[in-house]
Amino acid sequence: MRKLAPSLAGSEHGAGMNGFADRQADFTRALLHPELPTPSGLVGPDGLPSVKRFAVYRNNVVVGLIETLKAGYPVVHRLVGEEFFAAMARIYVLAEPPTSPIMLDYGAGFPAFIGRFEPAAVLAYLPDVARLERAWVEAYHAAEASPLPPSALGQVPPGDVPTMRLVLHPSVRIVRSVFPIVGIWQANIDGNDLRSVDLGEGGDDALIVRPEAEVEVRRLPAGAAAFIEALQAGSPIVDAVKEGLIVSPRFDLADALRGMIEANMIVGYDMQPAPPMEAA
Length: 280
Hints:
The protein is mainly alpha-helical. The protein has helices at residues 13-31, 51-72, 74-80, 82-95, 110-116, 126-140, 150-154, 181-188, 224-232, 237-247, 253-262; strands at 5-6, 42-43, 164-168, 173-176, 205-209, 216-219, 266-271.
């Protein structure tokens, strides 16, 4: 493979190391800023300046990052189309280049960027759909954990249930939206036939979880998202219920727990110590 290489000819040993670091920084800046000139001293295997080779390399880097975003946000890509997505993603790539060599980390800020991207404002639900897709990626790569069998919770004395702290699967993610994002996602994922989704049908609280091999996306009942988020934060059930009821007086604890058990998202529990007795 033919490579681009900065020349260090003529530099002293100490200065050469600093010069090489400076040239690396110039190389990185020029990669994602096409208005910048080709870094000085950059030559090919023939020892001649490599302006054209660098231009090709620069384009390949940007295209590769756009493809990474496309893979992580397939529904966003389908909703806006190839041309719009490529243009939007290119602007994002130039504005927010990778800060980690781990490509899994790249694109976490894309939903927030979409929310600021004025040409996408006509699709007001798009940032939330992107948040759901990012949660899907994070859930897919989350740590493994074994769900509790349903019988395990049945062994807890009823009087102890309010003080229980449930341990949830590491993959659990919650995305709340005023738009029906679960329906939009379901209508567009895996090459499904496009169908209309009534934006007036109300918002969705989405649960994203991967208890086994497959990531699941579920629509949560009223108040359940707040309840689960409180459990994730370490609250006992009694306090998490309060959070659910704040969101919706229709919150149903039994229904929420049943859904969590069906989703295999409870991996453990512990009990909150009783508060100390006050002296008389």
